[in-house]
């Protein structure tokens, strides 16, 4: 059976946040798909102290959210990249919402 794959697209006014999970780290980047540019990127490698993975993801969401807010952007498109909305993905999204971003 063929599954329909949705294409997620973001513009400068409402950019796309794409995430990638590895076993140890979480990576997130803000992308303007119209121009094909990465505007902002961050990862859990920036946090040097040891925390639970969900807590690190929440803090990464807040850091990324603050950087996005400095561009004057309040609305985003959240691209999970096929990951289930659970655990670290959910914590990152809650960190972004905590700063004031809207999906």
UniProtKB/TrEMBL annotation:
SUPFAM superfamilies: Translational machinery components. Part of the 50S ribosomal subunit; part of the 5S rRNA/L5/L18/L25 subcomplex. Contacts the 5S and 23S rRNAs. GO terms for molecular function: 5S rRNA binding; structural constituent of ribosome. The gene is rplR. CDD domains: Ribosomal_L18_L5e (cd00432). This is one of the proteins that bind and probably mediate the attachment of the 5S RNA into the large ribosomal subunit, where it forms part of the central protuberance. Coiled coil: none annotated. Pfam families: Ribosomal_L18p. One of its GO terms (cellular component) is ribonucleoprotein complex. It comes from Karelsulcia muelleri (strain CARI). NCBIfam families: L18_bact (TIGR00060). Keywords: Ribonucleoprotein, Ribosomal protein, RNA-binding, rRNA-binding. One of its GO terms (biological process) is translation. InterPro entries: Ribosomal_L18, Ribosomal_uL18_bac-type, Ribosomal_uL18_bac/plant/anim. This is Large ribosomal subunit protein uL18. The keyword DNA-binding does not apply. Belongs to the universal ribosomal protein uL18 family.
């Amino acid at each position: 059976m063929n599954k329909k794959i949705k294409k997620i697209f973001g513009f400068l006014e409402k950019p796309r946040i794409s995430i990638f999970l590895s076993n140890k780290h979480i990576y997130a980047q803000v992308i303007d798909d119209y121009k094909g540019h990465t505007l902002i990127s961050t990862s859990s490698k920036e946090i040097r102290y040891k925390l639970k993975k969900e807590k690190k993801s929440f803090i990464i969401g807040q850091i990324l959210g603050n950087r996005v807010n400095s561009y004057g952007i309040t609305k985003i498109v959240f691209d999970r990249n096929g990951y289930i909305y659970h655990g670290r993905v959910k914590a990152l999204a809650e960190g972004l919402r905590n700063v004031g971003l809207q999906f």
